[in-house]
Amino acid sequence: MAIMVPAFVFLTLFVYFPIVKGVVISFQNYTLYDMTNIHWIGLDNFRAIMTDINFGFLQIIINTVIWILVSLLFQFLLGFILALLMKEPFRGRGIYSALVFYPWALSGFAIGLIWAWMFNGQFGIINDVLLRLGLISNNVGFLSDPRYAMVSVIVANIWYGVPFFAIMLLAALQSVPAELMEAAKIDGAGPVRRLFSITIPYIKPTIVSTTLLRTMWIMNFPDIIYAMTGGGPSNSTNILATQMINKILQFYDYGQGAAFGVVIMLILFAYAIIYLRISATKEDATI
Amino acid sequence: MIGQIVTHCILIIFGLIFILPLVTMVSTALKPDVQIFAWPPVWIPNPRMWSNFPRALTFVPMILYAKNTVVITATSVIGVVLSSPLVAYGLARIDWPERNLLFLLIVSTMMVPYQVTMIPVYLLFNSLGWINTYLPLIVPSFFGNAFFIFLLRQFFMTIPRELSDAARIDGCSEFGIYSRIILPLAKPSLAVVALFQFIWAWNDFLGPLIYLKDQTKYTISLGLQQFQSGYQTEWALLMAAATMATFPIIILFFFTQRTFIQGITLTGIKG
Amino acid sequence: MQLRKRVLTLCVLALVVALCQGAVLAQEPVTITLWHGWTGAWTQVINDIVEMFEASHPHIKVKPLVVPYDERDTKLMAAIAAGDPPDIIYTMGNIVSYAARDAIVPLDKLMTPDELQVYKDYQYPLYQANEYKGHIWSFHGFVDAFALYYNKNHFREVGLDPDAPPTDIATLDAYAEKLTTMNAAGQIDRAGFLPDDLWHWADVFGGSWLDGDKITAAHPGNIAAAEWFASYSRKYDVRKIVAFDSSLATERAQALDPFISEKFSMQRMGQWKILDIDRYAPEDFDYGVVPLPAPPGGRKNSMIVPSGYGLIPKNAKHPEAALEYLLYWVGKGHEEDRAKIFTLGGWFPLSDEVTKEPIYQDYIQRYPHFQVFSDLLRKTDPTGFATPVELFYIDRINNARDRIRLLQGDPKAILERVNSEVTAELDKLNK
Q1: pLDDT in tens, C394-431
Q2: Fold assignment, A57-245
Q3: Which residues of C346-368 are buried (b: 16+ CB within 10 A; e: fewer)?
Q4: Which of A39, B120, B180, C248 has its CA 20 to 30 A from that of C221?
């Protein structure tokens, strides 16, 4: 017990106090230029961000949901497939997994830069590859066309997130007892059946916690969007987190930025509670 | 047999898609200036400008930045490895009231966007006089990290209670149980924690950005941004520097992946 | 009692020692901090300038710090919140926003009459751009101007005279059409020209975004420019333009250069492109630079100067020393140093005295296109943009530009909405 006291003192001072302060700021007029004039303004910041006609709040929420759901779904599916494929040893698995792991080693800035470069409408190699394969007949302005911008940033995000799932799920798969699999095989269960009736239920807790963690990270990690499109064109890739950064960096309005932060927190809290309820198992009851 | 071929094919396609950005990065890093804006894109630069790599190191003082980054990263890795298991142990294996509530509180901090607490935390460190030192980047890691505490708690909960009870009967103190019995078992999980922290600290951008006010103290991630100015971007050099910046992580992963994956298996991050 | 006396004596002694030290310290040079965004090779340029400054100002030490442009505000905000801002910061604009909110120091209050005169002489013709509500808020560290770049080889290819670039909008449009090439699939392969920045082109069309403090987004000139933007989308099909012009959205990746890669025949660009072209373009790349063409009744030689401003944040520790540094940048009394700075950085001087320096004249010999920009400054007054809602306004204009280009509405209606939005924002501030 005593050994943990410093950690809690620290947590209170450097984590909870700032969070409370952040929440407080969301109810204040708190702008970069006006640091001498900080005062309470009630719910004005929240009202302002929700009624901002230029950055339709509903549009931002929809974008956020699409960004999270599609990214998460594909990160998970591809990560899972990859984990299944990599479970059996093969020659070069070490190097292969290092390559697959690679995106994880890059910073958000580097990822955004490389993908923006690849998606570029004029020099980008993605246009080149698609042209060579005959899939498109002309260059596509992936990041300049509101129709493709969201897809493009999501592709980059999927690429970034697959390794996390692949490795987490690979580890989980290795914990599935071999005897269980053998027994099912003897009972005549095919690979698909085994996947759904043994593997998935067995690693369900891992699936639940990784997807939950990942959701939080995707929600709070707008670096890729910020580096690739900055939320544009015409708001088509603007999500809560990028708009929060916009408010802080472009409009110097820390109060409204904090208000966005509070909205994000509330959504995540609600999401986490509902998600855990739905997927509740006995072990989950502790979280 | 057919299944194997299919597996391999899928793996190869996966691999190709995965390394495309990597190929772009390295290929751009090797391009002479005139081939950077060429269309159709030059896939294999000719001539290959290996000199871009040493140039990138001097264009921005990357070697100095790398040294700084190593200091920060190494210290903070030591920090989380020392502190996180301690807190996790307290939450997982010592009975005391409201520990679940506390755990919840710790985990919930993961939901808070960094930007919300940025200024309040900065003001705190400022009042301690820690601005323009590495302390704000290092010290917090010595007090645990929500994600790691979460990860390790899961693992500690799977260790049979009887193990501790037996030791206690033998007169072992609580700290003795922790350090002599539980920690040795947790080595692979600690490797996971270490690698995660390594990646985060290595790539951390906002922290060094706001706290450091001396160019000689800058880190790699701040250095990478310096290849871009208001006017132009040194694409080849930037890509060369980015390639080099990821090497340590990849090499580290390559050599530790077995322990790493074993570690995750053990923690199982079961909810 | 004895003890108390002794303690007292000690205290007095300590105080005396401290005071003496203080006196000694006062002799020591003060150190000012300088935040700027010049990265890479430019960092060295700034360090050289600082070195030159320190050599002639032994009582001041300067500590320059590179802060990447995109992220500088995060750092600045934290520092201001903590009451520990740098002594000088170079920004790309938005001066009035700071000034209106009392976040920076009015420089004229620090200046002697002589210094004021130097400032006026050496910052002309830009000194208005630094003023707001009767005070001077910043010094120009460097200047960016815009002109039309055109590819002479493309001109030859389609039978246009490479030495007769367009000087009015009608010709520009006609040339653009001639220079645009389509590929087999009917998509744009090379664009003769595409309008890019509505803010600036509105100025060319005789428009104006501000009338004193009043927002005039729906000025007839602005609408004319907006209609002109829309006309390109109609002429070439929005989808084709969007597919072609990736620069629409990726301004962050601005260094991707379609002019150098010959995807554009004519483009509005700043003077820094001269050095880029010198470096990235193939040997046979042949181009010219002319002032932006203007329509009848429009503004000839428009160049708008979105410049780097040097300013002193409020609560800076050493405003006087910081002012000395800013005055040094202006160049009075060390014109040669100053001229050298310009050749180091690819900028052009504001004052004739500096321009005349042999070292700068040699530079112009080497890069003759700089002359065009240098002349522009003397031919025309730059357009200011002094409003405390600058960032918001610019953001709204760019947003409107995107919508106009995508033909998402009537240009006039779109600009009228910008007008009411920005006016509302301004009212909120004045309340």
Answers
A1: 888 988 888 898 888 899 999 999 999 899 888 877 76
A2: MetI-like fold (1.10.3720)
A3: bbbbbbebbbebebbeebbeebe
A4: C248
